[in-house]
Amino acid sequence: MSNNLRIALRFLTARKRSMLMSLSGIVFGVGFFIVTQAQTSGFEEFFVKTILGTNGAIRIEDKLQATMFFMPATNSYQESEFQLKTPREARKYIEGVEEPDAMMKALREFRNVSGVSIIVEGSVIADSSFKNDTAKVLGIRLDDHLAVSDLAAQVGRGSGSLDDFRTTPQGLLMGLELAKRLQLVVGDSVILRAGTEQRRYRLSGIFTTGVRDIDRIRIYMHLGEARSLLKKATGASSIQVALFDRDRAPQDAAQMEQVLKHGAQSWQEREVSWLEAFHALQISAALTVSTIILISGLGMFNTLAMIVIEKTKEIAILRSMGYTRQDIARIFIWLGAIVLVIGTVGGWLLGAGVTYGVSKYPIHLRGIFSADNFQVHWSIWHYVVGTITAGVVVMTAAIIPARRAARLEPGDIIRGTSQ
User: What stretch of H or E contains 362?
Assistant: First the structure.
């Protein structure tokens, strides 16, 4: 142990109560910074998983037809090359996908694509023995759709069986909220009306995505049956795509749009408003909790400033013994470093413990997603950012008194003229 560190430890015990209060503030500040970030990012992560498991990472729909071309010529008159560009605002979209099977084959060639599912959708009226309600039918090939969604888990959270749906041509999978409104249970019959077409189906399963707007309107049926009911013998309404790396969705969507000449929308673009809301909430929580660290830093600054005043004679003796200004400054830097290390380690332990406890706390949240307990996301970056925030505040609070102590001269202290 160096002499500077040994002296710093002696100075640290000079004002135990004040130092303990500052240290407690750092521990609580870092700890609750970690907890709030884990919660906000946890709910965001859960929301993203819900969206990806329901609507996929990318949605292909509507054929692109350019209505305007910009052809900027090159600077050289000898060159005859022209560059064709179609701005988004100049595009015309033709509804639907004309050749979905060929599109699926092309999409599977993209390296980041993990699954593709054709969807034929349309609006219907669902009639039960008790009432009727509007709904949206999605015709799917079950195995393809299981590769791009969490439908198996969603049915598992509801009731019924995917096996029953698979083996029943007239089977349906219905959202939980819609089933409640129609007062249906698995095995009941329901009539679907699309225009003049009217057919009876059997409810094979009830699914719950946790997104109320989806669960109250969506019905899955076999692709061939949906084509027959909706009178859509060819084509598809959209194609749902799953990716290995979800964060690359915007780049992949842009590439797909360029290659396939169909509109491609990534999940980040679809859910931009919710993602921005979660991001704003994270920043707000971080700023709010950081005030605890800031107040603790101000308290520590005051404590170190008082130590400088109280220890002027000791500082004079040290200077007389040959300690340089840098040595005196290092003593007070060591004081700040000790508080920082103990405070951050204590904050990590507090944050991890509270985060784990919060993750087990039961809640009943229904709306944009469904959750039965607090969602948390464990990330090393929450600990890193909390430590950096504490480090900036604590070391700033230590450096200013350290510089003041380093300026003290033995002669000024003896004469009583030190500043």
Answer: strand 362-365
Q: Please enumerate in sequence order all residues whose Cβ is within 8 A of that of 196, keeping only pairs 6 or more positions apart, or say none.
A: none
pLDDT digits (tens, 9 = 90+) for 304-327: 777 776 666 777 777 677 777 787
Q: Write the secondary structure of 21-69 as one string of H (helix), E (strand) and C (coil).
A: HHHHHHHHHHHHHHHHHHHHHHHHHHHHHHHHHHHCCEEEEEEEEECCC
Residue in the structure block whose two tokens are 């959202």: 175
What's the first-to-final CA gap in the chain, in angstroms? 31
Spatial CA neighbour of 402 closest among 36, 11, 74: 11
The domain locations on the chain are 3-52+274-415, 98-236
Determine the pLDDT at residue 409. Answer: 63
Residue 336 in contact with residue 22, Cβ under 8 Å? no
Those residues whose C-beta lies under 8 Å from the C-beta of residue 75, and which sit 6 or more positions away, are: none
What amino acid is encoded at 84 in this protein? L
With residues binned 3-state (H G I as helix, E B as strand, rest as coil), the percentages for the chain, rounded to 5, are 55, 20, 20
Phi-psi sector, 195: left (phi>0), alpha (psi -120 to 50), beta: left
Cα separation of 365 and 363, whole Å?
Answer: 6
14-73 residue pLDDT tens:
667 777 887 888 888 889 899 999 988 988 888 888 888 889 999 998 887 655 544 444
* Segment 328-338, tens digit of pLDDT: 778 778 888 88
- How high is the pLDDT of residue 415? 52
Cβ atoms of 74 and 81 within 8 Å: the answer is yes
Q: For residue range 385-419, what is the model confidence (pLDDT) as tens digits? A: 889 988 888 888 888 777 777 766 655 555 554 44
Check if the beta carbon of residue 56 is closer than 8 Å to that of residue 249: no
CA 129, CA 72: separation in Å to the nearest integer? 64
C-alpha 39/C-alpha 376 separation (Å) is 5
Q: Quick check: 380 pLDDT over 50?
A: yes
What is the C-alpha to C-alpha distance for residues 208 and 366, in angstroms, rounded to an integer? 11
Q: Binning pLDDT at 50, 70 and 90, where does residue 94 land? A: confident
Query: Model confidence at 88, in pLDDT bands (50, 70, 90)?
Result: low
CA angle 414, 417, 419 (to 5 degrees): 115
